[in-house]
Amino acid sequence: MKLCIALVVLGVFSAFSGPQTVSGHIAKNAVELTRAIYNGDVAAVEREVNAGNVNALNDLGENPLHVAIGLNEAQIVEKLIEKGANVNHVDLDGRTALQKAKGKPEIEEILRKHGKQN
């Protein structure tokens, strides 16, 4: 299941005609970062975040934090927040990180620990 979702998301990222701009910063590592999240590879996530933008958006308006939450990757959620992920970002469906984490108590607790209330 994760592999199928990963292929779809990677296809979404590769559909961009050029580098993605987020708040004036170019995020060239969006595909690699997403791949690392789908693989559950915390070290690769940290490497990609250090090389690019922790808040790069995909076509669904999700930042990497939203992707990690969707995959229930608690360690990666923690790492992304530590590296400056925007916990207050709202995706194109109008969901915040905490709303996306509903039913995932470990991730809900991480988000609350970092000050996200709704």
UniProtKB/TrEMBL annotation:
ANK repeats lie at residues 60-92. Residues 1-19 form the signal peptide. The keyword Signal applies. InterPro entries: Ankyrin_rpt, Ankyrin_rpt-contain_sf, Multifunctional_regulatory. This is Poly [ADP-ribose] polymerase tankyrase-1. Keywords: ANK repeat, Repeat, Signal.
